[in-house]
Amino acid sequence: MNINDNLKNNGITDAEIEDSVCEFGDITPESVLDYEIVVVGAGAAGVPAAGWAAELGAKTALLQKSSTVVSQGNCGSAIIKSRSTEAGIAKWIHHTNSLCDWRSDTKQLKAYAEHSEEAMMWFLNRAGLTKETEYGDGSKVDSNTESAKLLNDGDRLCAFRSTSGDFTGVWKDRLTTYDYGDDHCYFWAPWIGPKPLNVGNALQNALDRIMASHDNLETYYSTPAVQLVTEGGRVTGVIAKNKDGKYIRFNASKAVILATGDYTNNAAMVDHWCPDIAEFDKKQFGKTGDGHLLALSAGAEMEPLGHTKMMHDFDSALMFEEPFLFLNMNGERFTNEYIGFVYMGNLMKYQPSFKGKNLDADHKDGSKGWYCAIYDSDYTSWNRDEFVDGMVPPQVMEKFIPGAVEDPKGVFKNLIDLHRCDTLEELADELGIPYDKMKASIDRYNELCDRKCDTDFGKPAKYMHKIEKAPFWGARKHIRVSAGVSGVITNENAQALKADGTPIPGLYCAGNLGGPFYGGADYPFHQTGLSLGRCYTFGMIAAKHALGVLK
Predict the structure, then answer these.
(1) What are the boundaries of each domain within the chain?
(2) Exposure letters 42-73 (e unless 16+ CB within 10 A, then b)
(3) Residue 18: per-residue pLDDT
(4) DSSP states of 52-77 as a string?
């Protein structure tokens, strides 16, 4: 199979193929720059890859197609080996694989468990969020794992909460259980923010600090990579185009590390590789599969269908895990609400589209993923065990109500969509739901609550509460695609692999560009921050392995 056929078979359009295999006759000797490591993409994997390479002494170039570092999300996590048992980590690998339909590369899971603690501490330190000056041997974080002396960096950016946990005893979510017995696998999950600040701000700080002390690292913003250079089957460099339209050849004597993120904004690739998400809006912009295209042009292979998607919503209101009454945008109940937000994206695929706010360019007339969570003001009197995550007082919810707080903090203002009304008719109007359908659904739900038996969908009785006391609450949820987390097949060292399973010399694919770290249709939600933690870790692994220092 030639390169063009390989690209076409992987959902790449003819126009993209033309760009990826064209000749560049205008590259003069002055436009050829020599480096040891060239990293493409300045995000949660690319910044660690470039930073580690520079600190290890390699002359390094970091190419970024936008004008700044780009990463989303607030939480990354790491396995803390010093607080875990060896058997506990092995059970974590088995558990994680089970949540990925047994399609994970367990060598990659093991590499994450082995190296993520070091990668996390390095990142937090370089971002200015720890007091430690160096990572050390793990003993420092063990003595203070929950806080690790996390600081505010002076610009409001801080680690503002932790959702760390210890996998021990019986782990349980709403659908599955896993027994760790007496073993332990501890993960550390600090959140960086608060919103709208996120991990991208911390990565920018980290990169700026590293560049200030390492003149062997040079960053080229607004300089997208357009083609890999190969010689004798080895990737030896990258051709990029700067903001002036000039082509530059970046030679890489050691390796090229691609860390360009996913392809969720490339409609053709989505239709080919992950059609599940085609009708949903995307949280990201500019994630057009650039690195996938480059790797495929060098002989890499994509993970088999279907690819793993991450879909969830946090911003329209708090209490996003509570199994209130869920209505689609036609005002109809459609599910057992106890399933939780993790799998709501799958259910919403078969529910009506809606034209609301925050539609992306591919869905101007409406998108999938919209539904409403309805409850009444009596929720504050429920027993503690009648909540999944816990009751949030009405006054704390104020900042999620449009116009209720003049300058709400800690939320994305364009996503505020919680409503509180004195009548159900007013609530239906604000949510955009037909009142007659909504009223009929609530009447039926209240009838089932009186019976204490959900014969329509089978929700546990303790989560069945009538909706009858004003004021009434409704959160309009908008499930969007956070990320696609599948891509080019790699090994545990982040090396891109050919069809025969052997590495492509000189080419690494880190972060959401590589896999199969997960492999299942849905991203597993048992550990907060696994996605970003994986990106930090495999960016580090790629740089270390390319320079021959990975232990």
Answers:
(1) 1-310+483-551, 314-478
(2) bbbbbbbbbbbbbbbebbbbbbbbeeebbbbb
(3) 57
(4) HHHHTT--EEEE-SSSS-----SB--
More confident residue, 290 or 389: 290
Radius of gyration (Cα) for the chain, nearest Å? 24
CA 3 from chain centre, in angstroms, equals: 30
Give per-residue pLDDT as tens, 374-429.
Answer: 999 999 999 988 898 889 999 999 999 999 999 888 888 888 999 999 999 999 99
pLDDT at 142: 40
What's the burial of 142, exposed, middle or buried (CB within 10 Å: 0-12/13-18/19+)?
middle
Q: Of 46, 115, 530, give the one whose Cα is nearest residue 310.
A: 530
**The whole model's pTM is what?**
0.92
SS3 514: strand
Q: Please, which residues bridge with residue 376 across strands?
A: 472
pLDDT at 30 over 90: no
Burial of 369: CB neighbours in 10 Å, binned 0-12, 13-18, 19+: buried
State pLDDT tens for residues 143-158: 344 444 566 555 678 8
What pLDDT is stored for residue 9 in this prediction? 65
**End-to-end alpha-carbon separation of the chain, Å?**
37
Q: How far apart are CA 317 and CA 360, in angstroms?
A: 21
| Both structure tokens of 33 | 């720059």
CATH of domain 314-478: 3.90.700.10
CB half-sphere exposure, 255, CA atoms < 13 A: 29
Pick 1-310+483-551's CATH classification: 3.30.460.80, 3.50.50.60, 3.40.1130.10, 1.10.8.60. Answer: 3.50.50.60
Question: Does residue 69 contact residue 204 with C-beta atoms inside 8 Å?
Answer: yes
Q: Which amino acid is at 60?
A: T
Spatial contact of 238 and 227, defined as CB atoms under 8 Å apart: yes
Please report, to the nearest 10 degrees, the dihedral formed by the alpha carbons of residues 129, 134, 139, 145 taken in order.
10
Region 127-155: mean pLDDT is: 52
Domains 1-310+483-551 and 314-478 share a fold: no
What single letter denotes the amino acid at residue 438? M
pLDDT at 305: 83
CA torsion sign for 501, 504, 506, 512 is: negative
In three-state secondary structure terms, 523 is: coil
Residue 427 and residue 425: Cα distance in Å, rounded? 5
Range of weakest confidence among 193-207, 346-360, 400-414: 400-414
The CB density around residue 23, as the number of other CB atoms within 10 Å, is 7
Pairing state between β 234-241 and 225-231:
antiparallel
Phi and psi at residue 481, to the nearest 5°:
-85, 115
* Average pLDDT of the residues in 324-351: 94
Q: Which two tokens stand for residue 312?
A: 């969830």
